[in-house]
Amino acid sequence: MAAIALGIPAVRRGGSDVPSMAGRPDVPGLVDRFGRVAHDLRISITSACSLRCTYCMPAEGLPVIPRDELLSAGEIGRLVGIAVHELGVREVRFTGGEPLTRGDLVEIVRRSAEAAPGTPLALTTNGIGLDKRAEALRDAGLSRVNVSLDTLDREHFARLTRRDRLPAVLAGIAGAHRAGLGPLKVNAVLMRQTLHDAPALLEWAIEHGCRLRFIEQMPLDADEAWRREHMVDAEELLAVLGARFALTPVGREDPAAPAEEWLVDGGPATVGIIASVTRPFCGACDRTRLTAEGSVRSCLFGDDETDLRGLLRAGAGDDEIAEVWRAAMWAKKAGHGIDDVDFVRPVRTMGGIGG
Ligand code: SAM
Ligand code: SF4
């Protein structure tokens, strides 16, 4: 069915198809034409998921990517090594789909840690099943976990994610804490149905030693239900939270951090807001992304993808792969333009990119 296709845009296949490097300075890092340098690598490892969040997936889920089209654990490890040693990447995050649906996630982390010892390796997950694998992931080299949780109201959770799995998510968070995979960040997408659950979620996060960040909903849902005029923005959230807590703005942790932070009731607890739509931070973006099929995506919202899997499987050397990756990032566009009237959605939806 075309409407629920994974939405894979035309992928550049290497050779003459690789973006032009004209004007690019001869530096090893992932620089672009706007002076940005990417240090943060996000790797989607699957399109499968145990939930069906309405702001992300269609009810039937995304089409399964055939096993041989997914990067293997060894291929992921090799690309992580190239990213860190040749291209200046300093942090790697695994995402999806739901990364915990991959049986070889521990192996993916292990191969990545071996390829780039000392590089922080993080996981973005819905938490389902994390309690059973947190220790093995930590032992394999995982440094940190972000868990997505939008509400503590079980009915609201079930409606929003189309699955009644709140207890499993909470068990996953507890398991990650026990394994020492902290400081745990909790990400909540701002939705109208759960806006008034936000104060309780913040109270719970503070009590449980989690750093909560709210994210403005982006037009990356497979159902294409997002409307600029209906979305909950940072201002509206601040009004709701401000009725319960005293909030003091403290800015961003570092210039490339997507979240702006507020002290809660004088601190030390904080709450973050990632206002991707109303206060875009594209000018400070330091990300490079790999799809589960092994293509570089220079921007969450760009449809440009440049294939590395073909090169890997054709026996290309690290230098050649690094050069194609550099070219892909040199072509990165200036910004996403969600707030522009002529904004066009990317072909892939969030579950196919990974956030
Ligand atoms: N399944 C994992 C999870 O939910 O954390 C990883 C993949 S998920 C696509 C990554 C992040 O994207 C999650 O924090 C999720 O809440 C967020 N996300 C999904 N759809 C979004 C949207 N339309 N706008 C903003 N954030 C979104
Ligand atoms: Fe799955 Fe994460 Fe998308 Fe929710 S946000 S449907 S958990 S991939």
UniProtKB/TrEMBL annotation:
The question of whether S-adenosyl-L-methionine is a record keyword is answered with: yes
Positions of S-adenosyl-L-methionine binding: 55, 97, 148, 218
- Single GO term (MF): GTP binding
What does the entry list as the binding residues for GTP? 42, 93, 124, 185, 287-289
Entry cofactor note text?
Binds 2 [4Fe-4S] clusters. Binds 1 [4Fe-4S] cluster coordinated with 3 cysteines and an exchangeable S-adenosyl-L-methionine and 1 [4Fe-4S] cluster coordinated with 3 cysteines and the GTP-derived substrate.
Q: How does it assemble?
A: Monomer and homodimer.
PANTHER family on file: MOLYBDENUM COFACTOR BIOSYNTHESIS PROTEIN 1 (PTHR22960:SF0), MOLYBDOPTERIN COFACTOR SYNTHESIS PROTEIN A (PTHR22960)
Where is [4Fe-4S] cluster 2 annotated to bind? 282, 285, 299
In terms of domain of life, where is this protein from?
Answer: Bacteria
Source organism (scientific name): Agromyces kandeliae
Pathway annotation from the record: Cofactor biosynthesis; molybdopterin biosynthesis
What Pfam families does its record include?
Mob_synth_C, Radical_SAM
Similarity comment: Belongs to the radical SAM superfamily. MoaA family.
Q: What does this protein do?
A: Catalyzes the cyclization of GTP to (8S)-3',8-cyclo-7,8-dihydroguanosine 5'-triphosphate.
Task: Give me the residues that bind [4Fe-4S] cluster 1, please.
Answer: 49, 53, 56
- Name the keywords, alphabetized: 4Fe-4S, GTP-binding, Iron, Iron-sulfur, Lyase, Metal-binding, Molybdenum cofactor biosynthesis, Nucleotide-binding, S-adenosyl-L-methionine
**Cofactor(s) annotated in UniProt:** [4Fe-4S] cluster
The protein's matches in CDD domains, at most eight in alphabetical order, are given as: Radical_SAM, Twitch_MoaA
An individual GO BP term? Mo-molybdopterin cofactor biosynthetic process
- The residues covered by the Radical SAM core domain are 33-257
- Protein name per the record: GTP 3',8-cyclase
Gene from which the chain derives: moaA
